[in-house]
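Hey, can you fold this?
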Amino acid sequence: MQFNVNGVNWKVIFVTPDSSVLIDRTGKRTIACTDPVTKRIYISNTLHGPMLKTVLRHELCHCVLVSYDLLGDLHRMIDRGDYISVEEFICNVIADHYAEFRI
């Protein structure tokens, strides 16, 4: 799947759960990961149904933050040690409550 956010082309790639691309910035293995450099979302091919939708929405939030260059703004507002946890919190809130905002 390919898509565009604010003129930035992204691609979703499904990988095996043991793929090295599913290791996040903290060094932990995850079920999905967004790479802002290659503009790729990597998702474990074991996900399906509602969980897949929630995870994909979460990763799409990372794409929005990168594509609209919002991380710089975010980083100016918070301490360096909180960058990752605040970014993850934002993406989780949007992914978890997405259905409430659908019009």
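Oh, and this one too while you're at it.
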Amino acid sequence: MIRTLIAAAALLLAAPGGEARAHAPQSAEVTAIVGADVLPMTGRAERLRDQTVVLRGGRIESVGPRARVRVPVGARRIE
């Protein structure tokens, strides 16, 4: 269920470079979901494997390949 929600939100924020970014307050709680499969809602049957999704204050801050998205220091990490 959480992966489906991430996929839907990632579509709304998708950027051409394969990463998504949104802005949220710096003091908000940060959670990083590492190793997730993201299903973009582009109409094609594609699955982005081994992605990192960073949430700040309940909003997606960034989405992208594990090797390219940095998990902020002090973030709650979900593997």
